[in-house]
Amino acid sequence: MARGRLLMLGGGMMAGRAMANNKAQQQQAMQEQMQQEAQAAAQQEVAKAQLAAQPAAAAPAAAEPDRIAQLKELAELHSSGVLNDAEFEAEKTRILGGG
Fold first, then answer.
1. Residues 6 or more apart from 75 whose CB is under 8 A from it?
2. How confident is the model at residue 84 (pLDDT cuts 50, 70, 90)?
3. Is the model's pLDDT at 99 over the cut of 80?
4. For 14-58, what is each residue's pLDDT tens digit?
5. What global pTM score does this model have?
6. Rounded CA gap, 69 and 67, in Å?
7. Residue 11 belongs to what H/E stretch?
8. 2: pLDDT strictly greater than 80
9. Alpha carbon of residue 72 to chain centroid
10. Residue 95, Cβ neighbours under 10 Å: how many?
11. Cα 92 to Cα 51: distance, rounded to the nearest angstrom
12. pLDDT score of 26
């Protein structure tokens, strides 16, 4: 009878170890999954930042035609006599970002 109890205790200890091993494996798998998710989120943030930077880089190119149109209009005003030389130069400098 005592021997039967020892076998039962030994079997219970082995089952306990197996459960502990299983739990440790589950925890490790969860940690790995969380790390993978964190890496994926970081990659998404980098991609978003890159996309957000692209329109910002294109903005100066969009402003260029506007400046050209302003300069053309300024030249027409100057050639028609509406602006004198000093006024023309001052406005041209302002449009080109010099003041």
1. 88
2. very high
3. no
4. 667 777 788 889 999 899 998 888 887 777 777 777 777 666 555
5. 0.38
6. 5
7. helix 2-79
8. no
9. 39
10. 17
11. 34
12. 92
The residue type found at 20 is A
Residue 33 token pair: 């999954």
Q: Which sign does the torsion angle of CA 81, 86, 89, 93 carry?
A: negative
The C-alpha atoms of residue 19 and residue 2 are separated, in whole angstroms, by 26
Query: What is the residue type of 44?
Result: Q
Going by C-beta distance under 8 Å and a sequence separation of 6 or more, which residues neighbour residue 92?
A: 71, 74
Q: Give the pLDDT of residue 5.
A: 59
DSSP for 14-68? HHHHHHHHHHHHHHHHHHHHHHHHHHHHHHHHHHHHHHHHHHHHHHHHHHHHHHH
Q: Which sequence spans correspond to the domains of the chain? A: 2-95
Hey, what are 43's tokens?
A: 């990659």
